[in-house]
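The freezer alarm interrupted the setup, so I double-checked each line after restarting. Inputs confirmed:
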Amino acid sequence: MAQLGASLKIFTSHRVIYGDTDRMGVVYYANYLRWFEKGRSEFLRQIGLPYKTIEAQGFHFPVTEVSCRYFKSAHYDDLITIATQLTSVGHASLRFDYIISREGDTSSLASGSTKHACVDVNGRIKRIPGDLTQRLAKVLITPTQST
Amino acid sequence: MAQLGASLKIFTSHRVIYGDTDRMGVVYYANYLRWFEKGRSEFLRQIGLPYKTIEAQGFHFPVTEVSCRYFKSAHYDDLITIATQLTSVGHASLRFDYIISREGDTSSLASGSTKHACVDVNGRIKRIPGDLTQRLAKVLITPTQST
Amino acid sequence: MAQLGASLKIFTSHRVIYGDTDRMGVVYYANYLRWFEKGRSEFLRQIGLPYKTIEAQGFHFPVTEVSCRYFKSAHYDDLITIATQLTSVGHASLRFDYIISREGDTSSLASGSTKHACVDVNGRIKRIPGDLTQRLAKVLITPTQST
Amino acid sequence: MAQLGASLKIFTSHRVIYGDTDRMGVVYYANYLRWFEKGRSEFLRQIGLPYKTIEAQGFHFPVTEVSCRYFKSAHYDDLITIATQLTSVGHASLRFDYIISREGDTSSLASGSTKHACVDVNGRIKRIPGDLTQRLAKVLITPTQST
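Predicted 3D structure, all chains:
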């Protein structure tokens, strides 16, 4: 249903707890955004740029836009896989794409993306520093048929 | 920044608590989706169709798609207004649009929308029953410049 | 099942949303702690000491201990009442007691308490300033048969 | 600060995300109860009794009481360890004890416990079935000095 491009893709796992579900017996829709955060956080850690380190340099990347499409439900105790890719690096913005699936299941449960602005500690838009752009550009992919 | 059409608009309030915020000092992005739910829930209640009653008739409207754009941050203790409109009624689907603002502030903090499928208790897509469609159609508006 | 003493008691309301519930069809146990926060936040606002104002003076009251007993379940769309009382004011600590009930229902769903330390911006324990202690002492009650 | 007895102890990890924190820059107090759930869920899985399997047999163990003491704060990106022990098995009740710490840090951040009732699908109190009691008794410990 959803496909990410062929470049660097980071996989993170999450075991669904009761606290993630709602009375329909499935994961509440807002909780997928927590998984997106977990996905991009591990993505940055694995390419050697933990978000905490980026923040320590005075740069923040708040979410300016999110979208998510839900295809199938996630249930209690499911082992969820979050596949994350960096799909755009602008002068002062980033975009990540995500695919949520159940471990051992080839079809996806959901797909989505987040856009981020680069801001300083006062919340002012800033150009992403050159060295950071270079390192991000190396793992950047062009999405193909994403969602 | 965002504008809803001129038809029926339901306003709901929410006071931001610590539990809504994150370490940036602002409301965590996933929590806006909780506000969207609160908004559409009050919308349905105020037009005389509480969601609980709809469910009791065997119909559910799970979210199939969500999007949200964040313009400004919401902070601790802010009194938030959620403006909700029904913007589409299909054979087996609905769409709601939302505008999030701070009480007494004319500009909006965020805007978004959710799409819903009509399903039965077994999760199978169902046509929305005729009487429900009629009642929803009465409060339906065509969005103008929404987001 | 639970009873608060006869002195100042502040009542706050919360409508249960899907996002509060879990797959058992009831409110997830951790969410009662969000309600406790909402309760004490409104308590402080109504006695003229909004927590935000206290923080602006450099004092914070992080939770050092919480307990909650669950008697009956809360369900989707329930209108919940949170009754809050201040039950102890120490040199550098506070205690609040809470009773959770369903509107129009005399028996309680849950009861609990939180203890708080007074700290400065650096997290160091501080004596509660004299004027604050005096104002809090006025609304302090001795719990009688609480829980 | 807190100590669990010497018997079976199951360790689970959690990486703190933004969504776990609040504007004080620390993990919001209610989220520790999510970690407790994660802890007891992994405990049951590792002793060969996944909670999902217990539920499939018609038994549920809702929380009837929780308490938590907070000693130190957990921060963004901390790798948290949840140590879980089963500390009581009654005719129709269980108790788990938890210690929360930061990986590589000997002192604990928080400690707590949950009590559970054994109920059937209709929420009626039930005696825990004999074979389940026997298997739980094997991993039961008597807490020693557990806060």
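Quick read of the result. The mean pLDDT of chain B is 92.
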